[in-house]
Amino acid sequence: MHRVVFNQKGGVGKSTIACNLAAISAANGYRTLLVDLDTQGNSTQYLLGKQATELDSHIGHFFEQTLSFSLHPKGPEEFIHSTAFENLYVMPASPDLDVLQSKLESRHKIYKLRDALDALEDYDYVYIDTPPALNFFTRAALISAHRCLIPFDCDDFSRKALYSLLDSVQEIKMDHNEALEIEGIIVNQFQPRANLPTKLVNELISEGLPVLTSRISSSVKIRESHNQSKPLIHMAPKHKLSEEFIRLSEEINNL
After folding, report:
1. Chain segment 16-42, per-residue pLDDT in tens
2. Edge-to-edge strand order for the sheet containing 81-82?
3. What is the pLDDT of residue 138?
4. Residues near 203 by Cβ (< 8 Å), separated by ≥ 6?
5. Are 151 and 12 in contact, with CB atoms under 8 Å apart?
6. Can you state the angle between helices 112-119 and 59-66, rounded to 10 degrees?
7. What is the pLDDT of residues 87-135, one digit of tens each?
8. CA distance 46 to 231
9. Quick one: DSSP state of residue 231?
10. C-alpha distances in Å from residue 192, one per residue of 16, 154, 184
11. What's 219's DSSP letter?
């Protein structure tokens, strides 16, 4: 199962959601891969900590390889690194992605990521973290995925952007990836006692949009988790936020 976490708006929790769902999957015994397509590398830093600055291979090298002919290209597994957590692996981000983007687009390499992930048969789950833009790498991720998760952070700007985002996913589905389905909208940084977030979520539900039942609260525990480079399931498994992520994982996996 390949899942992409996608929203064109920054700061909605894509990396946090992707990493914590991947960590829960791995903790449950599933061999799990996180692919980081965002040049900021937040997911890479989150899962690898100090090791993230010492890498000799990353996803930029994978895409560079697709631009040149080689009799012996490296397999996608050679760009993957293990983490400190059992069953959890990462294909790290690269600052080179911005430079590579126009070259990859002009050479029509949009399907290379899909082909690479399809060749990785050893992984039960793949989570793809995307940049906050509908660019080449986001489209490549949507083409590679079976399911799409959309973080929503309960403000009016996010709501207006959501409709365009849903149209973009539908267009990718129609033109490039018939298997792609929107798995659900994840209500993130939710404050249940505030009137506006509850009102916005209820309106989305009344419109028939696929809002997931699980809610992810706003908490400083997330910052602590980032600072320690430890997903919540490993840093504070009994914390309310950890339990929310576990319920989200159970919901999308129908457990």
Report:
1. 999 999 999 999 999 999 999 999 999
2. 81-82, 88-91, 32-36, 125-129, 2-5, 147-152, 181-190, 211-217
3. 96
4. none
5. yes
6. 120
7. 999 999 998 899 999 999 999 999 999 999 999 989 999 999 999 999 9
8. 8
9. -
10. 20, 11, 19
11. -
pTM value is 0.94
Task: Quote the tokens at residue 214.
Answer: 């699980």
Name the token pair of 247. Answer: 């319920």
> Nearest Cα to 250, choosing from 88, 24, 31, 30?
24
Q: How confident is the model at residue 255 (pLDDT cuts 50, 70, 90)?
A: low
Residue whose tokens read 């996996």:
253
The distance in angstroms from the start CA to the end CA of the chain is: 15
Between CA 240 and CA 225, with CA 234 as vertex, the angle to 5 degrees is 70
